[in-house]
Amino acid sequence: MIAALIAPFYVYPVLLMKLLCFALFACALNLLLGYGGLLSLGHAAFFGSAGYATGVALVAWRLPFELSILFGVIVAASLGFVIGGLAIRRQGIYFAMITLALAQMVFFIVLQLKGLGGEDGLQQIPRGKLLGIVNLANDRSLYYVVLAMFAAGFWLTHRIIHSPFGQVLVAIRDNEPRATSLGYETGQYKLIVFVLSASIAGLAGALKAVLFGVVTLADVHWHLSGGVVLMTLLGGLGTVVGPIVGAVTVVMLENELGEFGSAMAQWTGVSWFGNLGEAVTIVTGAIFIVCVLMFRRGIVGELQHLILTVRSRPRTIQPQTTEWVGPPPF
Amino acid sequence: METFFGVPFAAIAGQLLIGLVNGAFYALLSLGLSIVFGLLNIINFAHGAFYMVGAYAAYIGLTYFGANYWAAMFLSPLFVGVVGMFMERTMLRRLYRLDHLYGLLLTFGLTLVTEGLFRSFYGVSGQPYAVPKSLQSALDLGFMMLPSYRVWVIVASVAVCLATWLVIERTKLGALVRAGTENAKLVEAFGVNVPLMITWTYGLGVALAAFAGVLAAPVFQLNPLMGSNMIIVVFAVVVIGGLGSTLGTIVTGIGLGLAEGLTKVFYPEASSTIVFLVMIVVLLLRPAGLFGKEI
Fold this sequence. Notes:
The complex is a heterodimer. Chain A is mainly alpha-helical. Chain A has helices spanning 2-6, 13-35, 44-59, 65-87, 92-112, 139-161, 164-174, 176-181, 186-212, 222-235, 242-268, 280-293, 298-312; strands spanning 129-130, 134-135.
């Protein structure tokens, strides 16, 4: 906590804010995937559309900062309502395919809508002032605003997970027919968590748009949807801090890969490493593969598991669980 | 010139032809997807990547080894099929007992790696691949020119689709595969080597994707991202058609290609989104898909 408050005096605030945005984005997906068991492969649609909406509100309509962010979140939530409402009509693998397809549709719409800049996206979005007083052009003031919003979003996901609603959600994830037979309207629960997740993803996207002053097609592209799934998976599905760890790891990796590559090229004399920075997708994909094959619990999940096994070893003999190796089942 | 709703007939026919070509690719790809899904319970995101690799294999074969189009048509699916079987043996096999979604995520990762590799070698700009000499002509139908190559794409893919359908529905091997889809344990109890059958089926599925890739090479510019852009549309096609029926998959693919072609004539702005719009309508009216058996 204190570390987060004093961090901007030691680390470049823009990088910190970027980390916070993606961590929030991953938390939003974790709420849906880790606790709701719903794999959305189209979450960039919410992240990006909120970014575009905020951008338009700030650039074209000259709305103040707070209203622009709010508008972005509302757009993401409405989009989440539509896409979620359609996707929950099918289950499992189809759910993932539908979210991916609808997100691609959003991508094409964004590409074609006039006023959204097509291939170039929105540029030079002003940061504005908080409540008309605090000038957010200063990186540190913006940092504390982003930190506060991240904390609010994170607290919200935490509250949702530990509420009765969250418990029902986990029950639906683990055994939907049973939840239905207990009288829960599973469809409604799924839709609500989808909209919540989309809104939080939207908040992350809106903040990122303000932070960099740019929104591009990359923000609505399926690569980003996959990227956020990777962050969540790498950190640990269904763990509270996992998505944050995952997001920080992936973003830092993408940032540092180029430098790491040139260092490796100098050290080993293999010039191929020099191009590592451009090969981000290869490395991301490779981590994906390793993650799915070797440690499906993610970094935090594995650590928790390790602590649990170490603690329980002296007292009890581990029951022979059959074949189940994954994290909580989807 | 004859017109139809104010649009020249030749323009409609031309777009319909392009739509038919696209539809043929959708059919080939969704057929491979549905075969793989049936037996492995994995939605193969890498299907698009295999399609792209198939096209590049033809290109590499031509530029570096002088293998012509017809040789590529045979060699590229063979190569990709072997690569696919290797991946099934080494990676996908570990995931069968887990949730389907892990398979999707693994193949997603495979796609990123494959695309990244091809991008680092060939960049993002397109590579042209010449139409083979014997198919460069065009037939004059009076109201429009009919490029032979497009006709060939349609004929070849429909033929391969039908052949696959015949193998699956009418041969003993196909019966075993279908039985394996229903209940793999029981088939194994009858003495069939199911893991081996799965490996071959995966190989066949991705070979179909590579075949589509070779067919597509002269039509579209080769681009490392061509596969993923295609596969997302094919996912929508699969959601619309449902994975239950082989013939249904083929019909849906071609039908949607035609719909896309028609949209290009009458409302070009919607041509990239029409398949997704159809998907929305189908989800609202018939959530299980047009030919789907289960939700």
